[in-house]
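SEQUENCE WITH STRUCTURE:
===
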Amino acid sequence: MVLHARNAKRAEDTKAAAPSASGVVIGDVASIAETRSVAEQANRLGPFDAVIHNVGVGDRERRIETVDGLEHIFAINVVAPYLLTALMDPAKRLVYLSSGMHGYGDPGLGDLQWRKRRWNGTQAYSDSKLFDTVLAFAVARRWPSVLSNAVDPGWVKTRMGGRGAPDDLEEGSETQAWLAVGDGDAAKVSGAYWHHKRRRKPHEAAGDEEVQEGLLAECEKLTGTALPGKI
């Protein structure tokens, strides 16, 4: 098991919390350059049976831009998993963290950086979680030999979710782990949206090939890196 930490201090904390991990890759995925470094580090430690794209930020922030001039939520929640997917040696299974709030997302691609619209953090977060689901489904379609799925972990008590979150923390992580290592046929599907080990109906835009290709094209434009073809 290889983990990810944003910086060296967090890497030390991570190693202490999970001493059985075989390694930690380090980098702030708000930066395209550091995300590339994370992918390079991972490739030196891989290949992997599964990759869980769990990194993300929530909706309680003002509009800020990253070092690359990208809106912060979109950069971390969408661009980072896209770029890691494109650069890392393909794993057998990929899991992307979505949210029930993805159902309120807007699939429009005209103002991904929120430069024209009045800022709305909740909407920006919902959009990003929809795009995570779109990305998972696009990868499932393009890479038929890879199992690619999206997961809603529920509203759990984390720093992002807050103390008032009603769902159980342990249950919130079970589905992505199950999809990553499960041996049963139920876990060996692709292009599905899951909540607590049950398939749920996603936003209809997630399965729209035009939306998928549009998002991939925008991410390629922003990063200068294309998602590889059929695997």
In short: The helical segments are 8-17, 32-45, 72-87, 121-142, 169-181, 209-223.
